[in-house]
Amino acid sequence: MATHLHRPVSPTAPEAAQTSSGPTGADRATEVTVTKEVTETTDASAAAPRPAHAVRVEGLTRSFDGRPVIDDLRLDVRPGEFVALLGRSGCGKSTLLRILAGLDRDIEGTVLVPRRKAVAFQAPRLMPWKKVWRNVLLGLPGKPARAVADQALEEVGLGHRSDAWPKTLSGGEAQRASLARALVREPDLLLLDEPFGALDALTRIKAQRLVGELWQRRGCAVLLVTHDVEEAVLLADRVLVMDEGVIAHEQEIDLDRPRDIADPRFAEIRGQLLERLGVATAAEAA
Ligand SMILES: Nc1ncnc2c1ncn2[C@@H]1O[C@H](COP(=O)(O)OP(=O)(O)OP(=O)(O)O)[C@@H](O)[C@H]1O
Ligand SMILES: [Mg+2]
Questions:
Q1: Which of 16, 39, 41, 274 is the most exposed place for a label (fewest CB within 10 A)?
Q2: CA-to-CA distance for 213 and 206, rounded, in angstroms?
Q3: Tell me, what DSSP letter sits at residue 258?
């Protein structure tokens, strides 16, 4: 797995990492401390050992107007691990995800991520003037064959809508098209920012199942930002709670899969996490 080192693009750092996705947004020099072993960041040949981390973040700080939203944050994600990220609104979850995606490099600190990464946001962000299959291939290098898109659309149960215009898709279908667009990148790291937030309850359950299946089939690391504690416990190997600019709490979820929300241990973990988030559980409120 090739790994990218993200740090600010600066005149004093000519070797600053390039990224496969999007604009950097960083055009000014920022002081940066890069302490990580560079061996881990170099391109891996087929024979090279798999890196120990899909994501490695150290001393990450991101400020807006002088106010640090992310403040000396540390985070590791193992290859193939499913991590869910919770935290109150405005605590910096999307900011962290954008940095990992390479969409924001106005940072201090060290960010190591795989070269192959993909991101899906709450809004599917499909181009209305391109048919679904063309949207799926959008931004891929070279001239990928339509079959590549069709295969990914099949994988998310949307093969029959390949030729459709985005405006004719339902919300759940559009979200699945967005997932297909992420999958064609064959990511080692899949970044999901509240991808089910706008879906109705039933569609949401189906989409959660789909993501769980895709993750198990593909074996990529996933970082899922969500507000839904139940969704986090249902899907993740590990749940993180972000607060005050850092990962303030983390919890391994050692429940067997598929998980059952009726399992008393499920309820116990959910309760603990809700408490961490400052939400009283029903038992406490009574
Ligand atoms: N481009 C920007 N310029 C100024 N402030 C920003 C910018 N982007 C984010 N912020 C601020 O940083 C903070 C964190 O925002 P972020 O979008 O990361 O929160 P979040 O945890 O994803 O919240 P939510 O759960 O509501 O999506 C917020 O106070 C937000 O206003
Ligand atoms: Mg957000």
A1: 39
A2: 11
A3: S
Per-residue model confidence (pLDDT) at position 100: 98
Cβ atoms of residues 156 and 165 within 8 Å: no
**Mean pLDDT, all residues of the chain:** 84
241: CA distance to ligand 2 center in Å?
A: 13
**Which residues have CB under 6 Å of ligand 1?**
64, 69, 87, 89-95
**CA–centroid distance, residue 213 to ligand 2 (Å):** 24
Angle subtended at Cα 53 by Cα 50 and Cα 59, rounded to the nearest 5 degrees: 145
Among 10-19, 110-119, 213-222, where is mean pLDDT lowest? 10-19
Beta 82-86 vs 238-243: how paired, if at all?
A: parallel
Protein residues with C-beta less than 5 angstroms from the ion ligand 2: 94
Domain boundaries, the chain: 3-78+106-114, 127-186
Whether residue 177 is predicted with pLDDT greater than 70 in this model: the reply is yes
Q: Is there a contact between 220 and 55 (Cβ–Cβ < 8 Å)? A: no
pLDDT, position 278: 87
8-state DSSP, 236: -
